[in-house]
TrEMBL record, chain A:
Residues 1-75 form the Thioredoxin-like fold domain. The keyword Ribonucleoprotein does not apply. The active site is at C10 (nucleophile), C13 (nucleophile). This is Redox-active disulfide protein 2.
Automatic annotation (TrEMBL), chain B:
The chain crosses the membrane at residues 36-54, 75-97, 132-152, 215-233, 245-262, 274-296, 308-329. GO terms for cellular component: plasma membrane. This is Transporter. InterPro entries: DUF318 (IPR005524), UPF0718_permease (IPR053166). It is found in: Cell membrane. Its main location: membrane. Keywords: Cell membrane, Membrane, Transmembrane, Transmembrane helix. Belongs to the UPF0718 family. It is a multi-pass membrane protein.
Amino acid sequence: MNIKILGTGCKKCQELEKNTRMAVEELQLDAQVEKVEDIREIMKYKVMSTPALVVDEKVVSTGKLLTVNELKSALA
Amino acid sequence: MFNELANWLVVDVMNMELSSRLGGALHFFIYDTTKILFLLAVMIFAISFIRSFFPPEKVKEWLEGRRKGAASVMAAFLGVLSPFCSCSTVPLFIGFVEAGIPLGITFTFLISSPIVNEISLVMLFSIFGWKVALIYVLAGMTLAIVAGSIIGRLKMEKHVESYVYEIAAGQERTQMPSGDSKTFAEKFKALFTREELKERTTFAARNVVETVQKIWLYLLIGIGIGAFIHGYAPQDLLVKYAGEDNFFAVPIATILGVPLYSNAVGSLPIVEALLNKGVGAGTALAFMMAITALSLPEMILLRKVIKPKLIAVFVGVVATGIILIGYGFNAIL
């Protein structure tokens, strides 16, 4: 599983990354979590509000800081 | 209700006269804190709920390929309904360019969105009442439309960083799946299923918590300073320097607003206290608009997509508009 957090470095983006890592750990998933900060890369996903969550190249959520629990149900 | 609570606490519980300096200041502090926090919670919930129906991706879709006049008014209106976090400024801007939305329309949206937000609305409503809050919304939208059209007229497209166009050109244009056979009524109904509503309510509730967490300290500091001014500041001095008769009050208020970004909550109680001391209402509104529309962090973000000259034009046009609005309100309110 490949998880990407899209965000240009704002506070919400950092928190989403932290929550995602926690969710992955709690679920004991075999997943790579990657932070994408380059705007060209971000725009490839046609995302207009950050932070966005991309799982296996599919945009799962945009403009939202998901909680660990929400992330767990989205990733499980 | 809040007035009675503050009266009761100050007069009955703390045994103070409302006409005394400390009593007056304390009353101001308790009254403002309870009233503003309550209104903020209610309004942020309501506005976040409405907002969940207007994500920026939708806004882009609605604005695409529309005629300039209609798109301009719509962009200002959607800016009110669809505030975005300033950290999304860059992807939003590129997304709009990519969709072929004219520069002027993009700026209309970028100006209108921060000016009319739930926090400034609550503050204006609780301090000046709904009429001034409504006038503020209309003035903000007008400013966004006019400033956007001017920027559009000036043909500043070459002052957008070239990589923005490269990204836009590199995107294969996505066709929205228009082939779905759902009628409008069906789509509309799908927005209000139980799960959808639950998600929107959670979103709204969380926004209340996040916002209050973010602003409560500024709010208390601002109300504290306001309470101090209310109880102790000399009236004649303030009227002399910031009263309606002072020609420079509005431009100075506008300039002071720029570095106070995101502190609308902290600044407005101060303005409220100043107003009671005779500072013009237009001056206060100009101050509020400058705080929200001309923010330093947003300019730094915009610099990533547009060149300094266009930023200067943006700031110049918006600041001029705000100052004119300030003078206008001072004259009529």
